[in-house]
Amino acid sequence: MTQTAALRHQRIAIIGLGLMGGSLAMALRGQVAALYAADPDPHTRALAREWGVVDVVAAGPEEVLPHADVVVLAAPVQAILELVPRLPHWMPRPAVVLDLGSTKRAVCRAFAQLPPRFDPIGGHPIAGKEHAGLAHADPGLYRGAAFVLTPLPRTTARARAVAEALAQAVGAYPVWSTPEEHDRGLAFTSHLPYLLGVALARSVPPEVRGFVGPGFRSTSRLAASSPRMMRDIMATNLEAVLAALERLEDEITALRRLLQQGGPADWEAFFAAAAAYRRYLLGEEGAAPRE
Amino acid sequence: MTQTAALRHQRIAIIGLGLMGGSLAMALRGQVAALYAADPDPHTRALAREWGVVDVVAAGPEEVLPHADVVVLAAPVQAILELVPRLPHWMPRPAVVLDLGSTKRAVCRAFAQLPPRFDPIGGHPIAGKEHAGLAHADPGLYRGAAFVLTPLPRTTARARAVAEALAQAVGAYPVWSTPEEHDRGLAFTSHLPYLLGVALARSVPPEVRGFVGPGFRSTSRLAASSPRMMRDIMATNLEAVLAALERLEDEITALRRLLQQGGPADWEAFFAAAAAYRRYLLGEEGAAPRE
Fold first, then answer.
1. d(CA A71, CA A94)
2. Shortest Cα distance, chain A CAs vs residue B193, angstroms
3. Per-residue pLDDT, B291
4. Average per-residue pLDDT in chain A?
5. Best mutation target, B23, B252, B280, to test chain A (most A CBs within 10 A)
6. Is A51 in the B-facing interface, judged by CB distances under 8 Å?
7. How far is A21 from chain B, CA to nearest CA, in Å?
8. What integer pLDDT is reported at residue A2 of this predicted model?
9. Residue A80: which of A59, A57, A105, A55 has the closest Cα?
10. Residues on chain A touching B251 (C-beta within 8 angstroms)
11. At what angle do helices B264-281 and A227-261 cross, to 10 degrees?
12. Cα nearest neighbour of A141 on chain B
């Protein structure tokens, strides 16, 4: 069975039609047997109907879940944690359960409590925009993105195949990991950049706003992320985030010392090495690990 | 005399055909009497000829400067500081002198030493890309950007009019300021974001690079800036940069305390306020100054 075949006969229900769920639905259109969605917001449902994003959109998950083979929970982490314990009540039949939450340990712990008829697997496509909501959804959002998949010990080969096929169907590539590895990694690559954006924005005095340009805009871009989403991320990954923040504070201290004690030649060499290390992190050059 | 008329009869020499000078030349094409350029790099000159970026391109400034009414120094700050004292030797006739350097105090101090036949004015278009060089130049680079202009006490109304017309001709809007105001402002809105990008990149351990996504990419984008350009910026604006860095360190400490001592509701409110303040800085909403 090819990866695509693993998806073609699936009826998929997406719970939450925001930026992530909406983009997923748009990208899956025509590649699955049926697409259902639930979203509590009437404007979102109206827009979903107008754009024909899914076959059926309902207010409550209980209206669409009984028809689905695969459930995708596309909501902020706290909302996912509230949805998971209610799935057994809403879904009498077996189903693969995947989520798109930004942290994975808490969600996978909740998944572990599901009755045996559920086949859960954690997921997190590392893609997004700073503007939330279906209005900003984009079928190309996941193209070229890493789609992290964190199976539980109980996750079957079938659920893995479905999740992998889904990642590929939306143009992403699967990255297999554990919830712990994921959460520690994202603390550095996503949660820390967000906090930095917040700290940077707060550092800029109002009287110099006339000098704001594209550099400030992109460096602080993540500060425009949904406060609720970020709150849930902090609540479920606090220890790793604080460790990453401490690492950053050390780097800033080192930079300050370099500026105070070094000279222009030292600065230039340091800056060039940092640029090279960033290219390495982004996979833009071979092996250039930090000294 | 309209602003555009102020430019139409000018012969303009651009010293340095990198990203900034090259983009300026492309955007001015057809709007001025003649466009000359000098660049020491033979590949840059070959590309400039292939693309027809200017009317004449030479290796040394002395070959084109005698024909120009307006000189634009488009190089890293240290290179500008080395060019300025040589202008009197190269240019026997009167000329308006404008630069595009990233800091303004040092350049304007050097401008003040020019003989009276020169009519100098500091300039800094707040635009750019992390990739340098003529190959990345773009006639739309300055569109919608703030073009800071810092006149000296001796700067004439004519030089002001020419500089303003030039800013408008490339699609930017002039922002009048002093060298001191500019350098302090840019320390927060540009030099600090750069240092943050460097510190962030260095904070990410190599083993988590598989989790890098668009958030890290944009937050650290400025870390890919030219190390030489950034070296010169630090060398000519160190005190203001260190003050901005200190402000940022305070904000990071405040964030860490909030995460350690507050709860999810406090975090969400803090994040929402930071996002609103960022929109205010970007001019995306009315008056919402930081508390």
1. 10
2. 6
3. 43
4. 95
5. B252
6. no
7. 18
8. 53
9. A105
10. 198-200, 202-203
11. 70
12. B214
Which CATH number goes with the domain that contains B36? 3.40.50.720
Count: domains in chain B: 2
Q: Do A26 and A118 share a domain, yes or no?
A: yes
**Domain shared by B167 and B217, yes or no:** no
- Please, which pLDDT band fits residue A124 given cuts at 50, 70 and 90? very high
Residue A173 lies in a domain: yes
Contacts of B255 in chain A (CB under 8 A): 195, 198-199, 245
CA distances from B172 to A81, B50, B56, B124, B141 (A): 49, 27, 25, 11, 9
CATH number, domain with residue B220: 1.10.3660.10
**Domain membership flag for residue A156:** yes
- Prediction ipTM score: 0.91
C-alpha B232/C-alpha B225 separation (Å) is 12
What pLDDT sits at residue B290? 47
The answer for B 219-258 residues in CB contact with A (under 8 A) is 219-225, 227-228, 230-232, 234-235, 238, 241-242, 244-249, 251-252, 254-256
Calculate mean pLDDT across residues B112-140.
94
- A7, A100, B122 from A252: Cα distances, Å: 47, 33, 31
Domain boundary among B153, B177, B201: B177
Q: Which of A190, A219, A237 would best serve as a mutation to test chain B binding (most B beta carbons within 10 A)?
A: A219
The two structure tokens encoding residue A95: 């189903």
Same-domain pairing of A13 and A80: yes
Q: Domain ends where: B109, B143, B177? A: B177
Q: Does B261 touch chain A (CB under 8 A)?
A: no
Give the H/E segment covering residue B88. Answer: helix B87-90
- Asked if B136 has any chain A CB less than 8 Å from its own CB, the reply is no
- Name the pTM for this structure: 0.91
Helices (H), chain A: 5-8, 19-28, 42-51, 61-64, 77-83, 87-90, 105-111, 157-169, 179-186, 192-203, 214-219, 227-261, 264-281
Please list every residue in chain B whose beta carbon sits closer than 8 Å to the beta carbon of residue A281: 201, 204, 206, 209, 212, 216
pLDDT(A3) > 70:
no
Name the DSSP class of B147.
Answer: E
Cβ-contact A235, B258 below 8 angstroms = no
Chain A residues within an 8 Å CB radius of B193 = 200, 215-216, 219-220
Q: Please enumerate in sequence order all residues whose Cβ is within 8 A of that of A129, keeping only pairs 6 or more positions apart, or say none.
A: A19, A136, A138, A141
Q: What digits encode the pLDDT tens for the residues A91-122? A: 999 999 999 999 999 999 999 999 999 999 99
CA separation, residue B200 to residues A250, A275, B21, B250, B260 (Å): 11, 11, 30, 17, 21
Size of interface A-B (CB pairs under 8 A): 303
Are B54 and B37 in contact by the 8 Å Cβ rule? The answer is yes
With both helix axes pointing from N to C terminus, report the angle between A227-261 and A179-186 in degrees, rounded to the nearest 10: 60
Asked if A284 is an interface residue toward chain B (Cβ–Cβ < 8 A), one would say no
A20 touches chain B (CB under 8 A): no
Cα B258 from Cα A250, distance rounded (Å): 19
